[in-house]
Structure to design on (380 residues):
C-alpha cells in the first residue's frame, strides 16, 4: 500500500512534541477513540496505547469496543483489518502508516489458495474432510475464504485448542494450514502428528510439489509461508547460549523453525512468553526467540526481580514493518483525525482500513469462530 511522505512539520517533530500532540488528541477525544498497540511496537508508541496485547488479545479487545468511534491500530495491516472486521460499521479503524504490512501475510494470495483448495479436493477420497485454518497473519480475503469454507482463524496463542476442536469434531479432517508452515508444524507435531503427515504446499510448484500419496496420507497441509523475523533464529544460537550459560532458559515463538522449537526449553506465543518470564523464579536467565522490541521491554521490566532476559540472537530480530509506526506518524494521524472532526467535508479521514462487506462478513465468521472456541477452551 502507498503511504505519502509525512508533511514536513511532522517529520521534524521531536519525540516530546509528538507526545504532546498525541496526548492532546487523546484528551480531547476521550472515550471516542481507543489506541491499540501490539507488543512488538516500539516503547515510544506502545506507551500511548490504551491497550497493549498480542494478536488474540487485540482482536478480542477490538470486538468489545462499544463506545469508541475511532480505533487507532498501532500494529500491522492484517491486524487493523481484523479490527475492522470485528467492529461495527460506524466504527472507523485507522493505521498510522499504510506500509506497515506483514511479509508472511503476503505469502498466501487468494488465487493461489483457491487453486490449492480445488487441487486437494480433487485428489481426496472424502473431499468434505478438508478444513481450511488460517493464522490471523493473513489478508482479509484469506480469512473470508476460510469463513466461506466452514474453516477458522487461529493465532499463535490458540492454535492447539483449535486443531483439537477440528479433530474432535472430525478425526479424519485434513487441515489446510495457511500461511505459516512453522506454527502449523510446531503445533501439530506437539500433538503427535508425524512430520511425514504434514507435507508442504508450495504455490509455485505444480500440484504444490506434492504427489497424490502425500496428500492421501496427510493430516495437515502446510502452506509454504514463514515469518522473516522468527525464521532468523537458529539451533547454533541455542547451543551458544547454553555454552555461555548452562542455566539459561530458552523460550521461542512458534513461528520459529521446527529444529529451533525442538531444541528450546519452551515454545510460547507472545502472550505465553510474557507470562512465563513474568512468573519466572528470581535470578533466572532467559534467552528469547522473538521480536526485539518485546524482548527489550521484558528485559527492562524484569530487572527489578534480578531476572536476566536477552534475545537469543546477537543481531536484532526486528519486525521492520511494525517499526514503521513511529510517534511522528501517530501524531500526524491523530492531528488529522482532530482536523477531520472539525470539518469532515473538507478534511477526509486518512488511512482508514475499510474491508469490503463481501469479504468482511465471511471473514468475521472465521474470526468469531476462533474467539468463541478459544473462550470455551479457556473455561474448561
Ligand atoms: P502473536 O501476537 O499472535 O504472538 O503473533 C506474533 C506476530 O508475529 C505478530 O505479527
Ligand atoms: Fe509479520 Fe513476522 Fe512481522 Fe509478525 S513479526 S508482523 S509475522 S513479519
Amino acid at each position: 500500500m502507498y503511504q505519502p511522505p509525512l508533511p514536513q512539520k511532522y517529520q521534524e517533530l521531536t519525540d516530546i512534541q509528538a507526545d504532546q500532540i498525541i496526548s492532546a488528541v487523546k484528551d480531547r477525544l476521550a472515550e471516542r477513540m481507543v489506541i491499540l498497540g501490539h507488543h512488538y511496537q516500539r516503547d515510544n508508541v506502545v506507551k500511548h496505547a490504551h491497550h497493549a496485547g498480542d494478536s488474540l488479545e487485540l482482536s478480542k479487545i477490538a470486538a468489545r469496543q462499544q463506545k469508541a468511534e475511532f480505533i487507532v491500530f498501532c500494529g500491522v495491516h492484517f491486524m487493523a483489518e481484523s479490527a475492522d472486521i470485528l467492529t461495527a460499521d460506524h466504527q472507523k479503524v485507522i493505521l498510522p502508516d499504510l506500509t506497515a504490512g506483514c511479509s508472511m501475510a503476503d505469502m498466501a494470495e487468494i488465487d493461489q489458495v483457491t487453486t490449492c483448495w480445488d487441487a486437494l479436493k480433487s485428489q481426496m477420497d472424502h473431499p468434505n474432510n478438508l478444513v481450511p485454518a488460517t493464522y490471523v497473519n493473513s489478508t482479509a480475503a484469506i480469512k473470508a475464504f476460510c469463513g466461506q469454507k466452514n474453516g477458522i482463524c487461529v493465532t499463535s496463542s490458540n492454535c492447539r485448542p483449535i486443531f483439537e476442536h477440528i479433530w474432535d469434531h472430525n478425526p479424519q479432517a485434513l487441515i489446510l494450514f495457511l500461511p505459516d508452515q512453522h506454527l502449523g508444524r510446531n503445533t501439530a507435531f506437539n500433538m503427535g502428528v508425524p512430520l511425514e503427515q504434514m507435507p508442504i504446499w508450495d504455490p509455485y510448484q505444480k500440484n504444490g510439489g506434492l504427489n497424490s500419496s502425500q496428500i492421501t496420507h496427510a493430516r495437515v497441509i502446510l502452506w509454504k509461508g514463514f515469518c522473516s523475523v522468527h525464521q532468523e533464529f537458529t539451533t547454533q544460537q541455542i547451543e551458544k547460549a547454553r555454552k555461555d550459560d548452562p542455566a539459561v532458559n530458552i523460550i521461542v515463538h512458534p513461528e520459529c523453525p521446527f529444529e529451533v522449537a525442538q531444541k528450546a526449553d519452551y515454545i510460547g506465543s507472545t502472550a505465553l512468553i510474557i507470562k512465563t518470564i513474568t512468573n519466572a523464579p528470581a535470578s533466572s536467565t532467559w534467552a528469547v526467540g522473538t521480536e526485539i522490541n518485546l524482548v527489550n521491554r521484558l528485559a527492562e521490566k524484569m530487572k527489578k526481580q534480578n531476572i536476566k532476559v536477552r534475545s537469543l540472537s546477537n543481531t536484532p530480530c526486528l519486525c521492520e514493518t511494525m517499526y514503521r509506526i513511529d510517534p511522528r506518524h501517530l501524531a500526524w494521524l491523530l492531528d488529522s483525525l482532530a482536523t477531520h472532526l472539525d470539518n469532515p467535508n473538507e478534511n477526509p479521514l486518512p488511512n482508514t482500513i475499510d474491508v469490503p462487506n463481501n469479504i468482511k462478513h465471511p471473514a468475521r465468521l472465521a474470526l468469531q469462530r476462533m474467539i468463541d472456541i478459544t473462550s470455551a477452551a479457556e473455561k474448561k
In short: The chain has 16 helices and 13 strands. The pocket of iron/sulfur cluster (ligand 2) is lined by residues 76, 102-104, 137, 227-229, 291, 319, 321-322 (CB under 6 Å). The CA atoms of residues 136 and 155 lie 6 Å apart. The mean pLDDT is 97.
